[in-house]
Amino acid sequence: MDMVPASGTDVKQSADWIDWLANHHDATLSLHPEIMILAARYGDGHLRAAKAIALQLLMMDSQLRLGILDYYRFVNPGLDNLIRWGYLTSVRRAPSLWRWFYTSTQNIDPLSRTQRMINHIGIKRFYSALKDMPPKLIVSTYPTAAGVVSTLKQQGKLDAINYVVMTDYSVHTQWIHPAVDMYFVGSEDMRQELLDRHIDPSKIIVSGIPVDERFQETVDEHAVRQSLHIDDNLPIILFMGGAYMPIAEYVQVLKILDHVPAKHTTIVIAGHEELRLTLAKQYEQQARNPMVVLGYVNNVHELMAISSLLISKAGGLTTTESLCRGLPTVIYRPIPGQEDANAEFLVRNGAGRRAHTEEDLGEIVTHLLEHPWELKAMAHQARSLGHPDAAQIVAKHIYLALRTEEANAPA
User: Fold this and answer.
1) pLDDT for 143-182, tens place per residue?
2) Bridge partners of 206?
3) How far, in Å, are 35, 146, 396 from residue 2 at the CA level?
4) Are 253 and 245 in contact (CB under 8 A)?
5) Which terminus has fewer CB within 10 Å in the chain: N or C?
6) Residues with Cβ < 8 Å from 256, sequence gap 6 or more?
7) What residues contact residue 322 under an 8 Å CB cut-off, 6+ apart?
8) Cβ of 408: how many Cβ atoms within 10 Å?
């Protein structure tokens, strides 16, 4: 079957369907999907990557039986809530504890007792739901899910093709399992890390990290600026990722960005949290420079396109989106562990700078706005690292593997 992109209307309908499906596990299971995508909502990036892949698959073949499961939420909602609470609490209030956990599990032996225990979390519930009509191919954008699938394959209970899509710019042992058929990674650096861990090179594809297909679209920057009442000539600082900061520090960062001497506009994305939105709107009234405060938005691709500089904590998907738009990043308060690695990746490749203190943040942003040629060089580096077509690359490999599997199946 030819892989022909769907029309604009079909894309919107498919995206809406995928959003709905991700929240309705019973609907996914009732489809008896031939392709199952496993994600999790810790940090949101895993699920966003899963949805991006799913959309590309449906654009290739609208008749595919496709499912998405939020793995922990499906197999054990109580455990899911506990893990979510523990994750959010540790990264907000005890980041050193999360760093310890991440680092201590960085190089666990895949065959160790600890790893085998992790690989059995939810395995009975998951297998029970799929055993009668198992998928032909399973894609994991969350590491624990990949381990469970690998274990079932090793036990001879599951014969599905097992693909793993890594959603950060570092290789953690939790992603690596014996019965994985293909790894999709974000960079050449990650490919080398996997090779150093003795992964077969034929099982590694440098695809980039999948993002929303709109990050490939051309944006009418003048129209977007007009809609936000932003002067065409002012550089824009885009502030995202403040949800993990203490409230007092969040307000202080608003002040630091506002007090940067060079004339500019700051766009603040406050997200779902009402308190941060309210505080940002209150500060907006007294800001020295123009400030636009937004809550949850669905047009990050446009906001990044009009911006000169991103202030972010370096989440895997946000980092990737900025690279796809060629947007330099100043990283501030990354979550210890995986986001430290993302930050290091950006800095090492010249696409980002890291601010370790509030004072650093103000100084770095001031310097970059006063030296626009440095921003231009960083933007060039960012664009060279971006893979806006990553979701298409991953989806194409999935689709071809599925059809090859069907063609080779016994008559």
Assistant:
1) 889 999 999 999 999 999 999 999 989 888 888 999 999 9
2) 185
3) 18, 29, 11
4) yes
5) C
6) 358, 361, 362, 365
7) 304, 310, 312, 328, 329, 351, 382
8) 7
CA gap 48, 212 in Å, rounded = 8
Residues 230, 303 share a domain = yes
Residue 2 lies in a domain: no
CB–CB of 101/362 below 8 Å? no
Helices 45-60 and 390-408, packing angle to 10 deg: 60
DSSP class of residue 335 equals P
Contact between 120 and 9 under an 8 Å Cβ cutoff? The reply is no
Residue 297, token pair as written in the block:
């938005």
**Residues composing the chain:** 411
Residue 92 is classified by DSSP as H
Helix 358-370 × helix 372-385 angle, to 10°: 100
Q: Which helix (H) or strand (E) holds 139?
A: strand 137-140
Model confidence over 298-348: pLDDT tens digits?
999 999 999 999 999 988 899 999 999 999 999 998 888 778 889 999 999
CATH classification at residue 42: 3.40.50
Residue 54 lies in a domain: yes
Same domain, 272 and 394: no
The torsion angles phi and psi of 162, rounded to 5 degrees, stand at: -115, 105
